[in-house]
Amino acid sequence: MVTFPTCPITEIARLGKTLRQWKRQYLGYFTTDGANNGGTEAVNGIIELHRRIARGYRNPTNYRLRMLLVAGGLLPPPELR
Questions:
Q1: In the list 6, 9, 37, 68, which could disulfide-bond 73, CB 3.0-4.6 Å?
Q2: Which segments of the chain does DSSP mark as H helices, in order?
Q3: What is the pLDDT of residues 28-71, one digit of tens each?
Q4: What is the pTM of this model?
Q5: Among 35, 34, 7, CA closest to 19
Q6: Distance CA 69, CA 49 (A)
Q7: Domain limits, the chain
């Protein structure tokens, strides 16, 4: 591997510094077969959006059901599918 003590191009030097700082996290993607938490973050984003929309809910059971509904974790009864 060839390394250079300095780079005359500021953007490239900054990119190299960033890659060195994130080396462990970046290479971790390959050691975990590409596993990531993207799905979890997507569901969390949906829940956060609807939490703001549903701020008037007073019943925790209804609030929980709404969150399950918008996140795709609640299915209609079999007779309605």
A1: 68
A2: 10-21, 23-31, 38-53, 60-71
A3: 888 888 788 888 898 888 888 888 877 777 888 888 887 787 77
A4: 0.45
A5: 7
A6: 13
A7: 39-75
